[in-house]
């Protein structure tokens, strides 16, 4: 159960909270070809 | 180990902020995510030491495909390739490394049950340093990872908010609090054998 609870909390709940923060985006600074 | 993997991923987010946290969290458990259907179909199994009920770390885990060294490398690539397409090579490299970190952390706690090759062919070596034989030490190591990850994430999230949008500093603290509470809850359930 701890595995599924952890997955739900970290991937979904924390993931949603984190997505609202002003982090750089994955491709920032990456040279486009 | 469950909570410790999440703690590590939170700490890595602090150092690689461009990688989405949800993807880091999924990556850090990817081996176990793939383990679930194989467990349900009896391809992989857990033998509880001393019989039921299962407790914290008292199992020999025959995850001979997902938790073999070669299997972990393959699963890292399986995760990293679509990530490269979606987020670029740098993020994919981080995510692939996080997937493989699961094998390395499990190596510390597993009881000599992690094979080199998928299927654990007879005569091939098994790995695992067996920290689970000392549940207090294993639990403390997981707690340390959760605390380190939470503090590192808090500092990075508040710094990012302060630099780009100070109005979101409170949100950053809430997110970090959620990381800590989720880690402690997951660890607590795990130690309780749930």
Furnish the topology, listing elements before pairings:
The complex is a heterodimer of chains A (33) and B (194).
Chain A: H1 2-19
Chain B: H1 3-15, H2 21-28, H3 30-40, E1 45-48, E2 59-62, H4 69-87, H5 89-109, E3 114-115, E4 126-127, H6 135-164, H7 169-191
Antiparallel strand pairs in B: 1-2, 3-4
Helix pairs in contact in B: 1-2, 1-5, 1-6, 1-7, 2-5, 4-5, 6-7
Textual characterization of the structure:
- The complex is a heterodimer of chains A (33) and B (194).
- By secondary structure, chain A is mostly helical.
- Chain A has one helix at 2-19.
- Chain A is elongated, with a radius of gyration of 14 Å.
- The N and C termini of chain A lie far apart (45 Å).
- The model of chain A has no long low-confidence stretch (mean pLDDT 87).
- Helix content of chain B is 64%, strand content 6%.
- A two-stranded antiparallel ribbon of chain B has the order 1-2. In chain B, strands 3-4 form a two-stranded antiparallel ribbon.
- Classes of the chains: A mainly alpha (33), B mainly alpha (194).
- Chains A and B meet through helix 1 of A and helix 1, helix 2, helix 3, helix 5 and helix 6 of B.
The tally of strands of chain A reads 0
The structure class of chain B reads mainly alpha
Number of contiguous helices of chain A = 1
Largest interface, and how many residues on either side?
A-B, 27 and 44 residues
What pattern of helices and strands is seen along the backbone of chain B? Answer: HHHEEHHEEHH
Report how far apart the termini of chain B are.
13 Å
Helix/sheet category of chain A: mainly alpha
């Amino acid at each position: 159960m701890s595995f599924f609870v952890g997955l739900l909390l970290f991937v979904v709940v924390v993931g949603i909270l984190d997505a609202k923060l002003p982090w750089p985006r994955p491709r920032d600074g990456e040279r486009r070809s | 180990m469950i909570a410790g993997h999440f703690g590590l991923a939170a700490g890595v987010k602090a150092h690689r902020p461009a990688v989405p946290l949800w993807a880091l969290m999924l990556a850090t458990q990817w081996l176990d995510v793939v383990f679930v259907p194989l467990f349900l179909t009896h391809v992989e199994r857990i033998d509880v030491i001393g019989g039921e009920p299962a407790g914290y770390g008292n199992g020999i885990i025959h995850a001979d495909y997902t938790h073999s060294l070669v299997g972990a490398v393959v699963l890292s690539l399986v995760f990293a390739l679509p990530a490269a397409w979606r987020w670029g090579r740098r993020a994919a490299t981080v995510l692939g490394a996080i997937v493989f970190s699961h094998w390395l952390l499990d190596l510390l706690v597993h009881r000599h049950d992690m094979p080199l090759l998928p299927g654990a062919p007879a005569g091939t070596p098994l790995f695992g340093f067996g920290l689970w034989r000392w549940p207090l030490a294993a639990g403390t190591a997981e707690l340390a990872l959760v605390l380190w990850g939470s503090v590192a994430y808090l500092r990075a999230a508040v710094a990012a908010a302060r630099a780009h949008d100070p109005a979101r500093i409170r949100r950053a603290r809430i997110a970090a609090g959620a990381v800590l509470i989720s880690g402690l809850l997951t660890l607590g359930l795990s130690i309780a054998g749930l």
